[in-house]
Amino acid sequence: MNAANLLKRGVTAFAFCGVLAVGAWAQGTTPPTPDPVQDTKDIQQDKRDVRKDTRDIRQDRTDVRNDTKDVGNDQKDVNRDKAQLQKAASNYGANSVAADSARQDLHRDQQDLHADKKELVADKKDVHKDVKDRRKDHRDIHHDRVDRYKDNHPK
Predict the structure, then answer these.
(1) Contact call for residues 112 and 133 (beta carbons, < 8 A)
(2) Residues 127, 57: contact at Cβ < 8 Å?
(3) Distances (CA, A) of 105 to 84, 92, 109, 112, 115
(4) Torsion on CA atoms 70, 73, 78, 79, rounded to nearest 10
(5) DSSP annotation of 95
(6) Could you tell me the residue ranges of all domains in the chain?
(7) Maximum Cα interatomic distance, the chain, rounded to a whole number of Å
(8) What pLDDT, in 10s, does the model give residues 97-145?
(9) How far is it, in rounded angstroms, from Cα 89 to Cα 136?
(10) Nearest Cα to Cα of residue 108 among 84, 87, 77, 73
(11) 78 has pLDDT over 80
(12) Which CATH architecture has domain 35-152?
């Protein structure tokens, strides 16, 4: 690198720093206007959100419980169909009508089991999301209360 390139880069860097400094100076911070009434409204809305999230959590947990029971019942059906298939295959042969019917029943029950497992996973995700939402709403209530206190008690 020669001296001309170093000088150009130095001037460019200095100009860029100047632009950043002027931008920061021009953005001066203005404090928000205190509004305790709006903070109170925000607190009430957040409380409504918490109650709604709690209802959603209870409903989702009920869904998880029901889906868990469905998965257990479907697993019993699959096991029963496997036993029927073995019995039909040993009594009538592997390619018999009874064995074919038992295979179809087994296939349908396995599809039901798979669908119920997917529902169970989705419901568990819903519970997790609702718990996260409720936690966020509790945090918002706290922040709104702090803001309202600061608005009512200026320094």
Answers:
(1) no
(2) yes
(3) 10, 17, 6, 11, 15
(4) 150
(5) T
(6) 35-152
(7) 96
(8) 888 888 999 999 999 999 999 999 999 999 999 999 999 999 999 999 9
(9) 58
(10) 77
(11) yes
(12) Orthogonal Bundle (1.10)
Question: How far, in Å, CA of 152 to CA of 155, rounded?
Answer: 10
With cut-offs at 50, 70 and 90, classify the pLDDT of residue 62: very high
Q: How far is CA 135 from CA 21, 53, 138, 145, in A?
A: 39, 9, 5, 16
**What gap in Å lies between CA 51 and CA 3, rounded to an integer?**
69
Burial of 48 (0-12, 13-18, 19+ CB in 10 A): exposed
The residue behind tokens 């479907």 is 74
Please give the backbone phi and psi of residue 94, each rounded to the nearest 5 degrees, phi first. -70, -25
pTM, rounded to two decimals:
0.65
The answer to whether 144 and 39 are in contact (CB under 8 A) is yes
d(CA 52, CA 59): 11
Structure tokens at 40: 């109170």
